[in-house]
Specification:
about 210 residues; mainly alpha; three-stranded antiparallel sheet; 10 helices; 3 strands
Length: about 210
C-alpha cells in the first residue's frame, strides 16, 4: 500500500473476487452515457470498451486473477465516514444507557429529539418488566440525604465546568459517579440550583425517579 496523491492511498488489487467486482463496476459504467464518455476520455479504446461490455461472468472469473491494478481510496472520505459511524454508534449506546438506567421517557425524548412513542418502543425492546428498585431511596435519613445531595451537586458543578460536553454527556458522566441511583433521581438533585433550566427538556427537570 503506497501513497498516490495527497489525501489518497492506493491499495494493490490481488484478490480475484475483488478484480471481478472492479471489472463488473467498469461494465456498469459502460452501460451509462456518462460512464462511457468518461472511459473514452480516459483513453480507453472504443472497441475494447464494447468487448468488455459483452463479457460473460465466466469470462470475468477467468481473466480476473491475471489482472493487476490499484484501488485508490480517499483518506478524507474514509476518516469522515468512520468518525460518523462511531458517532452514531456511541450516540445509540448512550441513548440505550439512559433507558436502561432509569431516565423517564419524556426526558430521553427531549434530549434526543425523538418522540415519546419511539422511546417507549426502544424501552420495550431493551427492558421487559424491569423497575427502578435498585435506586437509592432519597427519603433516607436526613444526614445521609444531605451528604448525598452535597456530593451530587459538587460532582455536577465540576462536570458543568466542561462546557464542551453536551448535556446528555454531562448527565452520563454524573451518573457514572452514582451508578446505584437512577438517572432521573441523580439529575433531579444535581439540577436543583441550575440557572440554565432551558437546557433540560421541559417538565423533566425536577421529576421524581420514575418512568413515564
Amino acid at each position: 500500500m503506497t501513497p498516490s496523491a495527497p489525501n489518497y492511498i492506493t491499495i494493490p488489487i490481488d484478490d480475484p473476487a475483488l478484480s471481478v467486482s472492479v471489472i463488473t463496476q467498469l461494465i456498469r459504467m459502460v452501460e451509462t452515457t456518462e460512464g462511457l464518455d468518461w472511459l473514452l476520455e480516459a483513453g480507453c479504446d472504443p472497441q475494447l470498451v464494447d468487448t468488455v461490455r459483452h463479457l460473460k461472468t465466466r469470462d470475468l472469473f477467468e481473466i480476473a486473477p491475471k489482472i493487476k491494478g490499484l484501488l485508490s481510496v480517499s483518506l478524507a472520505d474514509l476518516v469522515m465516514h468512520v468518525k460518523r459511524l462511531l458517532t452514531i454508534r456511541n450516540d445509540q449506546e448512550l441513548f440505550e444507557y439512559f433507558i436502561r438506567h432509569g431516565a423517564n421517557n419524556q426526558f430521553v425524548a427531549g434530549l434526543w429529539k425523538k418522540s415519546v412513542t419511539e422511546v417507549k418502543e426502544q424501552r420495550r425492546l431493551l427492558i421487559k418488566g424491569k423497575d427502578d428498585s435498585s435506586a437509592v431511596d432519597m427519603r433516607a435519613t436526613p444526614k445521609l440525604r444531605a451528604n448525598l445531595h452535597q456530593r451530587i451537586q459538587e460532582t455536577w458543578y465540576q462536570i458543568r465546568a466542561n462546557n464542551a460536553m453536551a448535556l446528555r454527556e454531562q448527565i452520563h458522566k454524573l451518573h457514572q459517579s452514582f451508578p446505584d441511583m437512577t438517572i432521573d433521581a441523580v439529575y433531579r438533585v444535581a439540577s436543583e440550583f441550575d440557572d440554565d433550566a432551558q437546557d433540560a427538556p421541559q417538565n423533566c427537570k425536577y421529576q421524581e425517579a420514575r418512568r413515564v
